Amino acid sequence: MYSEILGNEHEKHEKIIGTLGKRFTTYGYKRIKTSAFEQYDLYSNVRTSINQNEMIKVIDYTGEVLVLRPDVTIPLTQQLVQLNDNLPEEMRYYYVQEVFRQTFQENERIGKTQAGVEFYCKSSPASDAETIMLACHALRDVGFTDVKIEIGYAGFFNELIADSDITAEQTAELKTLIQAKNVVEIGPFLQRLSIDPSIKEVLEQLPLLYGAPEVVFERLQNLQVSESAQDAIKYLQRTCDIVELYGLKKHIVIDLGLINHMGYYSGIIFQGYVENFGKPVLMGGRYDALSEEFGMKLPAIGFACEIESLVKASSTREKKERYSIDVTVIYEESRIKYAIDITNELRERDYRVISKPMKDAEHQTDSLYTIQLTEQQNNLVDQEEMKEFIDFKQLLDLIASKKGVPEWII
Amino acid sequence: MDYLTVAMAKGRTAERAMKFLEKSDVHFSEFTDESRKLVIYDDKQKIKLIFVKAVDVPVYVEKGAADVGIVGKDVMMEDPRDVYELLDLGIGRCKLAVAGYPDTPIENIPFLTVASKYPLVAKEFFDKKGIRTEMIKLNGSIELAPLIGMSDVIVDIVETGTTLKENGLVVLQEMADVSARLIVNKASYATKTEDIQQFIKDMKEGLGVRS
Hints:
The complex is a heterodimer of chains A (410) and B (211). With 410 residues, chain A is an alpha+beta fold. Chain A is 37% helix and 21% strand.
């Protein structure tokens, strides 16, 4: 089955890809491509949400079974693990590629264009928050105004039921009830299970742990949870704090009833919604455990969105062409707020910007300018010289004097 | 102005749901019993009611064509959809049950022919008992099937049992309680949180339940 993308639709399709690519680039992501064919075994050995019978299989001349690329994250991670030697601590990649899944509905395309980012980095609230910011930023660029990102924690549910003696079937049913926020039936269902009463109470509350961060975290305080679940909550809270520093407060919703929809997610998970579209347009999360299936620790966070969904959901809004140049912001821990402010402002002006704490910045990032924020002063550094600046206006003037005033500052 | 779109099937459940809302000062004066309108708005122009076939309500809600839906649990059981199920309205109460001639065996037998509007629910029910089944999907007058020998038993919703009785049939086993549920599109819940929570509150007040 295929449906055609005709004329106008196709143009919109390309425009959205362009917009997303540009935005990903401003966060320091490089475009990569993966092979159209992948080993079938790669997918049968890894825990994923991709059903075996959804994959399009092909047999090559040696009789080996291949599949048409069902996703990008898994082969990319595997490839990086195989390169193994001298991987930098941080890698940022984005892709725009077709992925192929057999659909069982008529008129649904088998091939869909996915755009996504993979950020290989140590697990930290700052990197997770930045990734969520990028997701939101990208959706806003496409022209959506009412962007909502729902944030959950993949391990939370599993932590809760870890010590409980319930069958896989019961777990699955419990998951379904929580995913449907079925407050009506979850109580009676839990009655029948042999679970610790304090955990039962949390499970029953899970569907209600939804809403603005401050509301959810306050409700959580009245609930008793294990130490490891407590750690998860702290991590989530710290991430939300930083997301708020990015100025996204009104765009985020916490949903602890959001349960792992991909087999390999482990920490923060999130999905993006936009106005007047009934499905999530973007999904992502942290998948530290995936690389371990290939025998190496390579923690990462990423997200992907389907261009076809964005086309359907998007309004036709024109975006004008802009220039861009590269900046790295390096800050001492105490200056994180200012670093984020500057990064935000520069990205708003479409500079390609990376920010990181000074202790993680032994290796210079390959960028045109570096901004150093220490306790004492702010510096703008390029190949020739180092100049101090007091405020953002002065910084912009400095950059402009070096490059000449670009047309976008008017 | 952005409406909250609510999908439901015309009939008793819809009328009672509208009564609940009236208690919270949400009126649909456009609506009359004889009206054939498929789309009506409340007097404050905040809620848009669309009337669809009951089995289609979950589809409208899952696809986001409606933000909220009111639909029987039986429909949700037969065709589970990726939506939130936030409230039991407690109206349209009935039972899903296996029915047939008195003394028809439905345990420890190898095979049964079953007629039903709910073939998936029925099959799963008998699968769990280890009974193989031939399913006959019917869309109405299910009770006729055993009478003319087309099936051994039926699986259907039973409210008062009058139709069964008049046709010489009895409930052989109850399967589940059914009532009307309020379902919500997941994206709408994220983007229109306040409107939907207000709607649920209005409904609850109509039901006489305080949250």
